[in-house]
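User: Last request for today: this protein with manganese (II) ion, please.
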Amino acid sequence: MSTLNTLVEALADGSVEVVDLSQPLSEETPILQLPPPFANTPGWKLHEISRFDERGPGWYWNWFEGGEHVGTHFDAPIHWITGRDGEDVTRVPPRRLIGPAVVIDKSAEAADDPDFLLTVDDIHAFEREHGPLPRDGWLLYRTGWDARAHDQAAFLNANETGPHTPGIETATARWLAEESPIVGLGVETVGTDAGIAHGFNPAFPCHSYMLGAGKYGLTQLANLAQLPPTGSVLVVAPLKIVNGSGSPARVLALVPGR
Ligand code: 23J
Ligand code: MN
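Assistant: Here's the final one, the structure of the complex with manganese (II) ion:
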């Protein structure tokens, strides 16, 4: 039997399950807040065209507006100045949108310290237990922040000193971009960088190094707790927005079932 037939059977008998890693996209979806003088993204909005009424008696449909970087979304290399000559979202090879995923769980650490930063040592410790990071795969960084995604204030966790959300160290960003075999980093927070990363050198190092290396970002993921540390397969589906710097995305994980 072919590999794809085996997959179809595994989906049918539950030995492979599908976990939806996307957050719902609505006017309540939390959005990034950059400090002045920077421009900010609008959030998501649906506008009704007709709903079984005089505008369209037999059909319901909407149009929408919203930023590319709203909700569960994909960062393409051209989003950042370091990747400005790289791929827009239409040029990302589809082959790079499907791959193995591993999950590093730092939810306990992030609960104690909202400014927790993942280190290269943390990744090496994970590798000693679970094996090397997957080539052309995704590193998914669980922080427990998905539990806050229904509430903009709790999700951004800002005070007078700015936002406080977990992220990765500058050295980790550089190592993931330049040394590791992964294709991208996925997080539960509003961006792939820490809340305090505007003050790092370079500013927003995860964006700077990863997108500069032609790698990708995925944000506002849900349900990472349902994934094993290794052994799942990610399917990432951003919209094919011409010249897009990113896009809201449906992100699905295939995981071992019963
Ligand atoms: C623009 C500037 C800074 C950041 C971001 C966008 C994002 O997080 C994003 O969604 O790419 S930190
Ligand atoms: Mn983004």
